[in-house]
Amino acid sequence: MKNEEIIDFDLSRLSLSDLIEAYEEIEDFLHFLNDQRIEEDDLDE
Amino acid sequence: MNNFLDFIKKDIEAKKTLVSTMPSRTKTNVKKLNQTIDNIEDKYINYKTSLVNYLLAKSRSFALKDDVSDVNTDKLNEKIINLEHVKFLLNPTNTYFEKMGFDTLLYQINNYTTFNFDSLNDIINGFLDKFQLVGIALTKDDFHYTCYVHEYMSAFLDVRNKKTKSYDKVGEIFEQIYWINPELIEHIELNFRKLIKLNEKKFTTYIFELQKEAMRNNKVENYNDCIEKLKSLYIDLNLAKKETVNDIIALARKGDIDIEQLREGSKARINAYNTLVPTEVDTSNEKEMVKVCNVLEKLKINIEEYNNYLEFLPLFNEFRDEYINLVPKDDNEVPYKGLKEVVEKINSKENELERINKKIFSGKPGFFEFKSDNDLKHLKAESVLKAKELYKLYKTYDEEYFKAKVMSTLSNTLTIMDVLNLYYSFDYFKKLAIAKAYDTNSFEEISKYSEDFDLFAMNTTNIIVSGLPLFDERNIARIIANKYNLNSIKLTEEALDEDNLTNLLNQILLILRINKIENSKTTIEKIWFMCKVDKIVSNERKNGNLL
């Protein structure tokens, strides 16, 4: 998983619009993740 | 080294599939699912934090140095304010009456119903202050237009002279008089008008001294010299205030302009170029675009002037309809005598009123004392009636006074600029005309129109209206369009329709701003990026992810 660290990416290679797009992708994905979470108390074993 | 955007796009896709396909039927399943989500979320929050820090640093690196101007705009503004005052004092169109500001006070007292009692006191104090300025300390003996004016003003002056701020006692007297003489304020106005007329010489001398002093202090020879100096100062100020790239950046970051519209390929940008720039111009050629933009700068000023003209068109039309039949047709016309006639009527009626007042104040209706209270009551009622008639006569006087001023310049070659000068010189009549032209009685609305009108009249860049005849209708849109077509700008009459003007101005501004940025040390993309980062930062702060 080491290559997933942002430190291993050269952000300066991205264009300005790609940088903004990257932020928007992450933001959307974080919202998606939040929506996928299920309350554990609602379920029976 | 991997491309971060490509990586997260693929990774997000894969993680979405993973999360969506994980079982969630049992509590153990859900626990596992949530655990997986938490792990992915942690990683992506880390990504985001690092990315946001990078965006911030990058955005900050795009900031330009502050504009350093050799011109001190504060000093220029101060000089302009001083010279505008000299111009006001030297204005050859009006008299001491307007220069002392009596017309503005008259307008206010005429609209006393709009104000509260305190504001009415301010207006009366305003009149008294102006007399004091020229060394005239008015006393209760100066206020005997009617016995009620005398009673009210005596109480008013008592309070004023004590320099206390409470006019409560005056308010009580006003209450008492109001039910017998509801026109009291109108008669106070007439008393002031009479006093102003009586002291005309003192006011004229005062203004004359002010003019001399102002000319000496500002090194001005005469009115025309003042106008020339002002014009040159305004040119310097407009140059100093010209929009810089830093100004554009600030506007974009504040959200006052949409930077997306300036980006290559934007609909607004394509439309602006298609509307105004001829197809034969190579928009990527710097030299050609600088030439186009120089012409567009002038067009922008002309459109702003045309826009002002259209705003006040109802006022110009009203003026034209009022005076078109009075335009002298030949030299043998009978000279205008309206003002003289009404002045004579006022003088004669004021003499009659004075005779009645003398009887009331002396307590003698003739050679004998009053026989009963009824005699006095009768005389008081008669004096109020006379004052009422005089108020009507003064209204006619106002109309004739302005008419006389108009008649002195009226000809079939009168221009819009002449009308601007006339109304600018006579605040009272300008406001009356505004009320009529825009069919409004709202004091605030009239004041707003009046302020905008003055700014238009004072604008030294006005060029269209200076030669535009009032009595000869011209298609200004066509004149402007033809002029700029000759200067290689695509411009149609339709684009200059009143409803399309704001859009046209925005299109011109858009091209000018694009050109300015493209010839600077920054780029539209960088400014767009800074704006985007600002929004991201504000979003992160709102969610508590950034300090």
Blueprint of the fold:
The complex is a heterodimer of chains A (45) and B (547).
Chain A: H1 16-36
Chain B: H1 4-21, H2 27-61, H3 73-90, H4 96-99, H5 102-110, H6 117-133, H7 147-162, H8 168-178, H9 184-198, H10 200-217, H11 223-240, H12 245-254, H13 267-276, H14 286-311, H15 313-323, H16 338-362, H17 373-409, H18 416-425, H19 427-437, H20 443-458, H21 476-486, H22 501-518, H23 524-542
How would you characterize the overall build of this protein?
The complex is a heterodimer of chains A (45) and B (547). Chain A is mostly helical and 45 residues long. Chain A has one helix and no strands. Chain A is elongated. The termini of chain A are far apart. The mean pLDDT of chain A is 82. By secondary structure, chain B is mainly alpha-helical. Helix content of chain B is 70%, strand content 0%. Chain B is built from 23 helices and no strands.
Structural class of chain A: mainly alpha
Number of strands of chain B: 0
**Most residues in contact: chain pair:** A-B, 33 and 44 residues
Percent of residues in β-strands of chain A: under 5%
Largest sheet of chain A: none
Largest sheet of chain B: none
The parts of chain A where pLDDT drops under 50 for at least 5 residues are: none
Q: Per the principal axes of the C-alpha atoms, what is the gross shape of chain A?
A: elongated
Helix proportion range of chain A: 40-55%
Helix content of chain B: over 70%
Please state the overall shape of chain B, judged from the principal axes of the Cα atoms.
Answer: elongated
Number of helices of chain A: 1
Beta-strand content estimate of chain B:
under 5%
Quaternary structure state of the chains depicted: heterodimer
What is the average per-residue confidence, as pLDDT of chain A, rounded to a whole number?
82
CA gyration radius of chain A, whole angstroms: 16 Å
Distance between the termini of chain A: 33 Å
Q: Distance between the terminal alpha carbons of chain B, to the nearest Å?
A: 32 Å
